[in-house]
From TrEMBL:
Residues 97-157 form the DDE-1 domain. Pfam families: DDE_1 (PF03184). It comes from Fusarium flagelliforme. One of its GO terms (molecular function) is endonuclease activity. This is Dde superfamily endonuclease. It comes from the Eukaryota.
Length: 158
C-alpha cells in the first residue's frame, strides 16, 4: 500500500507534472449505505418493475415523481482529494455517523404538486427547530421525524 501524504493545491506542482492524469478535486461525501445499495442487481430490479402491465395501467393522477435531498449535519463541502484529471469532483465514502435531515418534493403525472416534506432525525418534531416568527411560507409544509432522518414506508403512507 502507498504512503499517505498531505497534498496542497499549489504546494506540489512537480507531483502533478509527473502525473498529468491526476489533479486536486473537490470531494463530495456520500453515505456508505447509499454507495453499497446502488448495485446493478437492485437498479435493474427497480426498472424491471416499470415494465409490468400493472404499472403501465396506473393513471397519471396516481403516478408521482419524488425528488429527495439529504443534508448531513456538521459536514463541510470543502475537502480536496487527488483524483483523475477529467473529473470535476470525487465521491468520498463516509462511514461516520451523522445526523440527517431529508427534504422531499413530489409532483403527480397530471401536474399536481404535493406540499414539501421535511424529515428530521429524532423521535418528535420540536418547536425550537423553527423560527419564532409565524411564516406563511411553511404553513402547508409537512414535518416528520424518523430514527435516522431518512424517509420510510410509514412516513410516505401518512
Amino acid at each position: 500500500m502507498g504512503q499517505l501524504i498531505r497534498l496542497e493545491r499549489t504546494g506540489t506542482p512537480a507531483f502533478f507534472k509527473r502525473h498529468p492524469a491526476l489533479k486536486c478535486l473537490k470531494s463530495k461525501l456520500i453515505d456508505y449505505k447509499r454507495v453499497d445499495g446502488a448495485n446493478t442487481t437492485s437498479i435493474n430490479l427497480f426498472f424491471d418493475r416499470f415494465d409490468t402491465p400493472e404499472v403501465q395501467h396506473i393513471p397519471l393522477r396516481h403516478t408521482h415523481n419524488a425528488d429527495e435531498i439529504g443534508l448531513m449535519e456538521g459536514v463541510g463541502d470543502n475537502g480536496m482529494v487527488v483524483g483523475e484529471s477529467y473529473r470535476k469532483f470525487v465521491l468520498v465514502k463516509d462511514h461516520q455517523k451523522r445526523t440527517w435531515t431529508s427534504i422531499l418534493e413530489c409532483v403527480s403525472g397530471d401536474g399536481r404538486v404535493l406540499d414539501p416534506l421535511i424529515i428530521f432525525a429524532g423521535k418528535y418534531v420540536q418547536q425550537q427547530w423553527f423560527p419564532d416568527k409565524d411564516n406563511e411560507v411553511y404553513a402547508t409544509w409537512k414535518f416528520e421525524t424518523s430514527p435516522n432522518g431518512w424517509t420510510n414506508n410509514n412516513i410516505v403512507l401518512e
